[in-house]
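Handout, page 2. Input:
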Amino acid sequence: MGKTFKAAIYETHGNPAEVLRVVDCPWPEPAANEVVVKMSAAPINPADLNSIEGKYPIKPELPATPGMEGAGVVIEVGSEVRDLAVGTQVILPHNFGTWREIAVIAADKLVVVPKEIEPIQAAMLKVNPITAWRLLHDFVPLRPGDWLMQNAANSGAGQCVIQIARELGYKTVNVVRRAELVDELRSLGGDVVLVDGENLRDEVAAATQRASIRLALNAVGGENALRVAKCLASDATMVTYGAMSLQPLSIPNGMLIFKNLRFTGFWVNKWYDSATLEQRAETFAPIFEMAKRGLLQTKVEKTYRLGEAAAAIAHASQHKRSGKILFDLAGPST
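Output:
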């Protein structure tokens, strides 16, 4: 048997812990325009589990390898590749399954990552930081000193919003469900951190000296999103990018008629599909600079080997985690 590498695959949709298998795959030979990447790390995102379950809008052809983001190092280049050298750290594209030890892919699909960024952090720069950056730039023109508000502030995207907003000089009101998260998010740079409740509007007004809040970021939905909307100024915008409560938005007519609130959505996959290479580079550049300076970091709770996929998925499915769960793909297989 020739040289092989390991990859996670699923051949049918269902419970990730039950349908996911780790298999041996033949070592790839790159075409002239391709490179071989040795994967360093890949996180387990909620969307990855949704994809395996068959609940995500994008359904890849089966059998499929999951994983929407990850980073690695180029170890071999095709004969016509000129812009990527062996040893370059790269991020894989959003439509390529990353839960594998080795990837062969067209060189022009990869994003080069500065070597100063740790591989584990590089593996998590493509989804949540990009989402946060676009949420802060594409909907309401903000200036230093302006306020914005978000729920799910302890989520991966929420923490990125806090860190990026702090760097840009914006002030954040951050809503969480558990009191033990308050100090942690304040230390991350959150200006105001409040536990969700029926008095949220009064608490926000008091904490911000009744500041005008023109942008809200919603990843929860349901009653929580309505309480956040009640805190907004007239002509403000709420952007929905997640639905953790699995409950729809229910917006009173008066918010539309008398306050002229705008409700819209964002999905990072659609942004990637429509963004030009130049637009992607312009977004990654400041994110890379923040990551290099240690100003944009994602907390990691635990890493697993690929052979421990069942345990990793079970851990990633738990609530009340303190950080991300990732596959460490750089070492020997287990």
